[in-house]
Specification:
Blueprint: H1 2-36, E1 39-45, H2 48-63, E2 67-74, H3 79-84, E3 90-94, H4 95-102, H5 111-126, E4 128-130, E5 140-145, H6 146-152, H7 157-162, E6 168-171, H8 182-189, E7 196-199, H9 205-210, E8 216-220, E9 232-234, E10 247-252, H10 253-258, H11 261-271, H12 275-286, H13 292-302
Parallel strand pairs: 1-2, 6-7
Antiparallel strand pairs: 3-10, 4-10, 5-8, 5-9
């Protein structure tokens, strides 16, 4: 009799476990089916890095069962209006841009503080959510020829200021006047008395450095040419004058509320990006002339 009861107990338990498994599978299937009915519009700005990251978001959402509408090459000055006006649902933004250009708040330099500020203010003012930010920082910087760096022992902007009188500066004109350009550096590091300073077009600066026509130039910290560390050295802003510009997804609250699983899907992309990684991805497009869609797809497959 005891054996019979034990057998019934085991069979009942198996039936319950099987029912739970089938229920879970059914829920996942229903969620995937629901996702397939939804199209998420991903906007991107009109430069390489933003296009690559937007494509990574698109690939991740498609893997999760969503339909995606890609809206590429939106001018940086209007992309915020595009998401506020519900023309797109999400896009990759930079924390420093949100703080200074959109919210027009005072400059902050701590990455966590900048992120917390933009996250809170975007939620209150625009009904937009900043998902987790990545370590990739596309901020302002100065690049120096590797030969000059080695000869004079220059690794930081403090080192640079001490040797400015021995260096030729390839200016872009505006950077000499902007409050957040050279003037901001000189307030903290001291006057940069260059040996010479000449204005060049931004697109020519790496050729100018390569041809030894200048020693130092303004740069953005994730430019693809910076992978050539035997030629170009990005100087450390050791006194943290410039604000951080960490990459992060911005999404409309309405869309995130309807599809909360998007946060986990996209946050996995952010966690895989840092400054060296995004610089290398930019290099494949801007230096090696690959298509950004191919670069994004190869990287996405590498992190699965």
């Amino acid at each position: 009799m005891k054996i019979k009861k034990k057998t019934i107990y085991i069979i009942t338990s198996l039936i319950i476990v099987l029912s739970l498994v089938l229920s879970a599978c059914s829920q996942q299937k229903n969620q995937a089916s629901k996702n397939k009915e939804t199209s998420i519009r991903i906007g991107t700005k009109d430069f390489t890095e933003n296009l690559i990251v937007g494509e990574l978001y698109a690939l991740a959402l498609e893997d999760a069962g969503y339909q995606v509408e890609r809206v590429p090459n939106i001018t940086g000055s209007v992309i915020h209006s595009s998401i506020v006006n519900q023309d797109i649902d999400m896009y990759p933004e930079y924390t420093g841009t949100g703080l200074l250009a959109i919210l027009k708040l005072d400059l902050l330099t701590d990455p966590d503080e900048v992120y917390a500020t933009v996250k809170e203010e975007y939620k209150k003012k625009f009904n937009l959510t900043w998902l987790e930010y990545s370590k990739a920082n596309d901020g302002a910087g100065l690049v120096i020829r590797a030969e000059a760096s080695e000869k004079l022992g220059i690794k930081t902007i403090t080192d640079l200021q001490k040797h400015a009188t021995e260096l030729r500066f390839a200016s872009q004109g505006e950077v000499d006047q902007r409050a957040d350009g050279i003037p901001a550096l000189e307030k903290v590091y001291g006057k940069l008395n260059w040996k010479s300073s000449k204005v060049y077009d931004n697109s020519l600066k790496y050729e100018v450095l390569k041809n030894n026509e200048a020693d130092v130039a303004p740069a953005y910290t994730t430019e693809g040419q910076l992978v050539n560390k035997d030629q170009y050295i990005l100087l450390e802003d050791d006194k943290q004058v410039w604000p951080p510009y960490n990459l992060a997804p911005v999404i409309r609250d309405e869309v995130l509320s309807a599809h909360p699983d998007i946060a986990e899907v996209i946050n996995k992309i952010s966690s895989a990006l840092d400054t060296d990684t995004i610089t290398a991805l930019n290099a494949k497009v801007d230096v090696e002339q690959e298509e950004y869609e191919d670069v994004a797809k190869a990287f996405y497959e590498s992190i699965q």
